[in-house]
Amino acid sequence: MEDRQPAQRPVRLALIGAGSMGRNYARLIGEHAANRTDRTAGVDRTNCAGSPLSITAVVSRHEETTRWVRETLGDGVFVAPTADALYAADADATGAATGAATGDAETTLFDAVLIVTPQESHPALVEQALRHGKHVLCDKPAGKSVKQCEPMLATARANAPDLVCAMIFQQRMFARHRRIRELIRSGALGEIRRAQLVDSQYFRTVAYHHSRPWRSSWAHEGGGVLVSQGPHILDLWQWLFGMPSTVHATIPFGKYNDFAVDDESTLVMTYPNRMTGTFIITTGEGVGETRLDVQGTRGQLVMEGDLLRIWRYDRDTADYRRETTCFNASELGVEYREETLPEPDGWAAYWALMENFAVAVRSQGQSRSRGRDQKDAVEPVATLESGIRSLEIADAAYLSAWEDRTVTLPLDADRFERALQTHIAAEA
């Protein structure tokens, strides 16, 4: 029988970025530290006896944020004015230049960082954490452009598998999305020939765009809806269907707003197996929806919100097309069913992903301490490398729209970066 490990202390996080989302994550972690009765699906809790995460440090440049830390997280949380000061304090605490990546040393201030800052700062902060031997959980997107992310990705690869480097793409944890992926990967729908995703749930006002100086700009966000609201949906797309071979985009920049970036984008993608995909995202439509239509040779699936409508054929349409003597699909047997897979609340998927991160960190430490092969360690749901793929699709779409041509992947990141810098200069 395999030995059972005693309950472990939480993976200790340093929160870098205590704005609205950072505080939401902190509250979520605090709530689950107090109440461990949740039973979110899709997470292995073998290594998560007790609360799996705690916040032990926060980077705060503002007095108001420091007050919030004291009132919400308690006096025991270390507050540093900058990330540099955070790592210096950690080095002082451990008596060494770096902390212990597995969290074995009780003297470290923290084991991992939770990065929730504007996206242009993500690559430098991720690199800094990895250089100091810390695991990383970073909010989306990975950065402002694929080119900007290249040094960060190289550092992550150099430190793998000793350090877990993950991203917050919580839609991978939605029950309906996991069910769709299961149907696709199992072959239940046959070979996927066409897919269309329309997402209009992110209506945004002028007040929203003006709420932060870095919002909706080439210089700071690297674009509009595709890199602000779009990363979660683009990540879902590539998680379900993989990376396309080509991207052709139609983007009416500033369709609903007086700015240079996109508030609506339409992408047409092609795949090596001749699958075609259409992806539409907008922030300008009042009645929001998320609708996905997947057409395969053995069935069809339509997702409308929490509802999945599934049609299964009694044979592959490629075979039926060749063998039948009739002129249409009248002799094709079809079985229909519906499945409703709602999320318990808006934050359940976030928490499931955070728990997965804690499991990955702990399992990595256990594999190393027991001398096991690192392949035994749990991989995070969304690795940094997989998380950059949605950014590559977005960059390809922008390049396609700017140059009015179909862009082939892998992306020419240097060409895109030159074009981006041109648009940043024009915007200024």
From TrEMBL:
Residues 12-159 form the Gfo/Idh/MocA-like oxidoreductase N-terminal domain. Gene3D superfamilies: Dihydrodipicolinate Reductase, domain 2 (3.30.360.10), NAD(P)-binding Rossmann-like Domain (3.40.50.720). Keywords: Oxidoreductase. Residues 177-301 form the GFO/IDH/MocA-like oxidoreductase domain. The keyword Cytoplasm does not apply. This is Gfo/Idh/MocA family oxidoreductase. GO terms for molecular function: nucleotide binding; oxidoreductase activity.
